[in-house]
Amino acid sequence: MAAARPFGLFRNINAKIAAIPMVLTALVVFTGGTIWTVVYSFTNSKLLPREQWVGLAQYERLWGTERWNVAIENLLIYGACMVVLSLVVGFVLAALLDQKIRFENTFRTILLYPFALSFIVTGLIWQWLLNPDFGIQSVIRAMGWESFDFDPLYNADIVIYGVLIAGLWQGTGLVMCLMLAGLRGIDQEIWKAARVDGIPMWKTYIFIVIPMMRPVFITTLVIIASGIVRLYDLIVAQTGGGPGIASDVPAKYVYDYMFQGQNLGQGFAASTMMLLAVLVVIIPWAYLEFGGKKRV
C-alpha cells in the first residue's frame, strides 16, 4: 500500500503540471485580491489606496447611507421574487416539455434563446418594451384600451419589478433546461408505479419527483443566487439606477464609489458586504453537497 502512494501522486502528472498556472492565478489574483479588498475596506482610501486606518468607520457610513439601504432592499425584493418565480416557472415549463410534445426542440430553443443574450441587450430590449410612448402600453392603448397603464420603469415604487420582468425573461430558460435534465434522469419505472397506484400526477411531482431532484434544485438555486448578488448590467442598461436611486443595487453602488466617486474605501466596504452575501449562499450549498453524512 505504501508503494502505491507515489504512483497515485504522480498519476496524470502532465495534467497536474498544466493546472499549476490556473491554481496560482486563483490563489494570487482571486484570493489575494479578496484579502486586499477586505483589508483596505478598513482604511480611508480615496482616489488611491492608502494605509490610513479608520476601523469600522466605512461600514458605519455604508449602513447609514440611504442609497445603500435602498440598494439592499431592491436586491432582497428582486432576489426573493427571482428565486421563487424562476424556479416555479422553470419547473412548470420543464414538466410540460417532458411530456414528449411535438416540436420540443423548437420550443426549448426559443425558451433558452434569451439566455444567450447579454444583460445589456436584454435591458435595452425591455427598456423599449416598457417605454410608455412606444412599448406595451402604447400598443394596448392603440387597440382601444385607453385607460391601460403599464410603465413600471418610470414609477419609483415598482421600478424593481420592471427589472424583474427582464431578469425572468432571460434566466428562466436556463432554469427550465436544468429542470428538464433532472426530470429526464427520473427512472420511468417510478412514473409507471405511480400510475398503477392511482397517484395523481401533481402529487407524483410534489411528493416523489421533486424530492428526488434535490441536487438539481440546490445547484440551480446557487446559480440563480450568484446572478442576483452581482446584478449590475441589467440595471445600468434598463434604468441607470433611476428614477433617482429607486432601482439602485449594491454592485452599482460599488462601481459608482470606486470609479466615479473616487472613494475606494467606501467601495471596498460595499464589496466586502457583497462577498459576505456570496458566502452566505456558497457555505450552505457546500455543506449540503459535500458535508454532513456521507451517502452510501
Could you give a short description of this structure?
InterPro entries: ABC_transporter_permease (IPR051393), MetI-like (IPR000515), MetI-like_sf (IPR035906). With 296 residues, this protein is mainly α.
Task: Summarize the structure in words.
This protein is mainly alpha-helical. The chain has one domain: MetI-like fold. The chain has 14 helices and no strands. The chain has helices spanning 4-9, 13-40, 57-63, 66-97, 104-112, 119-129, 136-142, 159-184, 188-196, 201-212, 214-229, 233-238, 250-260, 264-290. Helix 2 packs across helix 14 (264-290), helix 8 packs antiparallel against helix 11 and helix 13 runs antiparallel to helix 14 (264-290). The two termini are 24 Å apart.
Q: State the low-pLDDT regions, or none.
A: none
Fraction of helical residues: 55-70%
Q: Give the number of domains.
A: 1
Give the structural class. Answer: mainly alpha
How would a textbook summarize the main sheet? none
Write the CATH fold name: MetI-like fold
The CATH superfamily is known as MetI-like
Feature tags:
single chain; 296 residues; mainly alpha; MetI-like fold; 14 helices; membrane
Which helices and strands occur, and which strands form pairs?
Elements: H1 4-9, H2 13-40, H3 57-63, H4 66-97, H5 104-112, H6 119-129, H7 136-142, H8 159-184, H9 188-196, H10 201-212, H11 214-229, H12 233-238, H13 250-260, H14 264-290
